[in-house]
From TrEMBL:
Lineage: Bacteria, Pseudomonadati, Pseudomonadota, Alphaproteobacteria, Rhodobacterales
Pfam families according to UniProt: DUF1330
Highest rank taxon of the organism: Bacteria
Domain DUF1330 intervals: 2-94
Record protein name field: DUF1330 domain-containing protein
Alphabetical list of InterPro entries matching this protein: Dimeric_a/b-barrel (IPR011008), DUF1330 (IPR010753)
Amino acid sequence: MTAYMIARIEVTDPEDYAVYAGQTVALAEKFGGRFLVKGGPQAFVEGTGPGRHVVVEFPSRIAAERWYNSPEYQRILPIALRASLRDLVIVEGL
């Protein structure tokens, strides 16, 4: 079943965050991931939210978890954690 990694991100250090973000696409592709949303303009129709949203499609929840837990992703994760405030969730699709 397809799964989506959804991230709500408030970038606190754009320069440092760019180092992290520049590596995520190729890494996700190694695990079958495909970025559907990566920042970009947004319009809030209800409530408020962070300055950035990301949605990555994976072939399964297991593939998404393997990506997140991989040594390659864990190597760049500290950059994201120091350069942003964020919530991540993996949601299975229909």
